[in-house]
Amino acid sequence: MTVNTTKSTFGSGVKDGLPYIVVVIPFATLFGVVAVEAGLTIAQTFSFSLLVIAGASQFAALQLMLENAGIVVVLMAALAVNLRMAMYAAALAPHLGSAPFWQRMLIGFLNFDQSYLLSVTRYEDQPLMSVAEKVMYFLGVALLIAPLWCLFTYIGAIFGSSVPATWEASFILPVAFLAMVAPMLKSPAHLAAAFVSIVVALVLTDLPSGSGLLIAAFCAMATGVTVETLLESKA
């Protein structure tokens, strides 16, 4: 593969990731604001985003911290929310498993909702892409979004105290989740898992320390696996 082809594939990833920054920027900024207001230092808030790069689990962990939940519960909640990354990795393995080790390690670190969703969609649409092209496309998406996530977390942490209390920003979080989740609901298993997670989370909303979130996550995963297995057995 020529250098020009590599650059073109990387550029395609950047281009496809551009619409997502409309959600990533306010989402990251909101996390920075909320984290500092919750008592984290600017350095802790920035490090949180830099090391984790997963808004859903970061907000889940932060919410439990605010409720003075134990460290085990906080870690379990973050793990439960982020278990989808393991499924993302499994789905990417057939496409990127033969890439050099250092590239696979970088891809593993930068494996989040947008980079996975866009990459898998592109790979399915263009099955003749080489492994090198697939890697460059993935990095084009990830290296656009991940730095912005960290940068605007920092900006939110820096300027969070100056945001007027009358400003309503809570709508950003559900909008961000809808923008990421909706395009991924492509099969009956996805829809069933989403429905179960919503119902269980609402029913168990009064459980202490966000434990309802853990139960909802595991119920959703079990539902998705069950529906997928049943569909495959009938095929």
Write up this protein.
The protein is an all-alpha fold and 235 residues long. 77% of the residues lie in helices and 0% in strands. The chain is built from eleven helices and no strands. It has helices spanning 3-17, 21-37, 42-52, 55-66, 71-96, 101-109, 113-125, 131-159, 172-181, 188-203, 211-234.
Overall 3D form: globular
Separation of the first and last Cα atoms: 38 Å
Radius of gyration: 19 Å
Relative strand content: under 5%
Q: What is the succession of H and E elements?
A: HHHHHHHHHHH
Helix content: over 70%
User: What structural class do you assign from the helix and strand content?
Assistant: mainly alpha
Contiguous uncertain segments of 5+ residues: none
Number of discrete domains: 2
Note the main sheet. Answer: none
Residue-averaged pLDDT, rounded? 84
Instruction: Write down the oligomeric state.
Output: single chain
Counting DSSP H or I runs of 4 or more residues, the number of helices is 11
Strands, total number: 0
